[in-house]
Amino acid sequence: MPADYNGRWEMVSNENFEDVMKALDIDFATRKIAVHLHQTKVIVQNGDKFETKTLSTFRNYEVNFTVGEEFEEHTKGLDNRKVKSLVVWDGDKLVCVQKGEKENRGWKHWIEGDLLHLEITVLDKVCHQVFKKKV
Question: Per residue in 65-123, pLDDT tens?
Fold first, then answer.
C-alpha cells in the first residue's frame, strides 16, 4: 500500500529554489518574489489518482495526474512550458520525470513522519522543500 499523501501541507524550508528557477529561465523579478513565498500544498489522493494544488499569495499551480500514466503538463504557474510528465511509485516515493526543453527535469515527493519532502531537479540544480502537515 503506497503512502498517504492526503492533506494540507505548510512550507517550513526551501533550499536552493532560486538556482532551480534560474535553470528554468525564470526572470529576475519573479525569482525575487517567489523565493520569499510561503507555499501551501493541498493534496487529494484516491489510490493512484492525485489532485495537487500549490498555493501562495503570488501564484497558484494545480496539477492532476494518475500514477503510471504519462500526461501533458502546462507549467503556466512556473516557467510556462509544455512538458510530458510521468509519475511513478518508487516504494513510497512519488517520482516524476518531465520531458521537454530542459534536460534532467523532474521531482520526487516522500513523507517522513509529519513532513512532506519535495526535491525538484532541473539540469544540474536541485531544490529541497519541506512541508509540515497541517492538522
Answer: 999 999 999 998 788 899 999 999 999 999 999 999 999 999 999 999 999 999 999 99
CB under 8 Å, gap of 24 or more: what pairs does 109-115 form?
A: 109/5, 110/3, 111/3, 111/4, 111/5, 115/12
Distance CA(24)–CA(75), nearest Å, equals 11
pLDDT band at 2 (very low <50, low <70, confident <90, very high): confident
Whether 71 contacts 95, CB under 8 Å: no
Give the chain's mean pLDDT: 95
Question: What's the order of all strands across the beta sheet hosting 49-55?
Answer: 61-66, 49-55, 40-46, 7-15, 125-134, 115-122, 105-112, 93-99, 82-90, 71-74
Strands 115-122 and 93-99: unpaired
